[in-house]
């Protein structure tokens, strides 16, 4: 069912931010060599290609559930706190004509506020689907297209995408949901496990992963 923007629980919502974190201590693991990784957002240290080990194991399971001819393509996993803050602040600054509170909430449609961001915990992954030769399937928008650029087509259940794109989004969900991941409904490419948003969606008493430092 299509969720209008007003129906989506945003990651800045108190129902999400109030959930406690009981840090599991799981290490960050390198995705490279285990799943396909796209270098478009690569950083010098390779932090982008890391996720909590439990998240990576679930993604490997999801990969096994895809039909022949389809693979997960990982675009970005872990994101340092400073990078997360910069992305949020830069996007928020483009949302003019709003009060500070309104711009904070509106920005969280597309970028998580740093204090609750699942990428900084290694708990979230931005990904898409590709063919065996690496060609990306039509998903309706590019990964990381914001609501303004895409006229809202970045929303997972958006009606203004092609039948092929809608089918590919459903195929992605059919692999990731059984593996235990949840989607952020404003971004078809963003899936997570163990963070506060996952806890809210699954009614878990606490999140498993909080912000973590990346070290080589």
Summarize the structure.
This protein is of the alpha+beta class.
What is this structure's SSE topology?
Layout: H1 14-17, E1 28-30, E2 36-37, E3 50-52, H2 53-65, E4 71-76, H3 81-93, H4 100-107, E5 124-130, H5 147-150, H6 163-176, E6 182-183, E7 190-192, H7 196-202
Parallel strand pairs: 2-4
Antiparallel strand pairs: 1-3, 4-5, 5-7, 6-7
Helix pairs in contact: 3-4
Binding site for Zn(2+): 119, 126, 190
Function: Catalyzes hydrolysis of the D-alanyl-D-alanine dipeptide.
GO molecular function, one term: D-Ala-D-Ala dipeptidase activity
Give the fraction of residues assigned to helices.
25-40%
Q: How would a crystallographer describe the biggest sheet?
A: 5 strands, mixed
| Radius of gyration using CA atoms only | 16 Å
The figure for the number of domains is 1
What is the CATH class?
Alpha Beta
Cofactor: Zn(2+)
Active site: 187 (proton donor/acceptor)
Site (Transition state stabilizer): 79
GO molecular function: D-Ala-D-Ala dipeptidase activity; metallopeptidase activity; zinc ion binding
């Amino acid at each position: 069912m299509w969720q209008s923007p007003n129906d989506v629980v945003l990651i800045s919502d108190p129902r999400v931010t109030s959930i406690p974190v009981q840090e599991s201590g799981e290490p960050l693991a390198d995705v490279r060599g285990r799943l396909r990784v796209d270098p478009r957002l690569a950083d010098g240290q390779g932090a982008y290609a890391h996720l909590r080990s439990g998240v990576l194991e679930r993604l490997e399971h999801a990969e096994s559930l895809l039909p022949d001819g389809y693979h997960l393509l990982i675009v970005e996993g872990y994101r340092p706190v400073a990078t997360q803050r910069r992305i949020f602040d830069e996007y928020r600054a483009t949302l003019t004509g709003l009060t500070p509170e309104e711009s904070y909430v509106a920005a969280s449609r597309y970028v998580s506020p740093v204090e609750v961001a699942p990428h900084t915990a290694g708990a979230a992954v931005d990904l898409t689907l590709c063919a065996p030769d690496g060609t990306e399937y039509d998903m309706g928008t590019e990964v990381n297209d914001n609501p303004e650029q895409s006229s809202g087509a970045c929303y997972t259940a958006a009606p203004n995408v092609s039948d092929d794109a809608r089918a590919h989004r459903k195929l992605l969900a059919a692999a990731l949901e059984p593996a235990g991941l949840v989607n952020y409904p404003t971004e078809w490419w963003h899936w997570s496990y163990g963070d506060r948003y996952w806890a809210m969606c699954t009614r878990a008493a606490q999140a498993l992963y909080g912000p973590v430092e990346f070290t080589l």
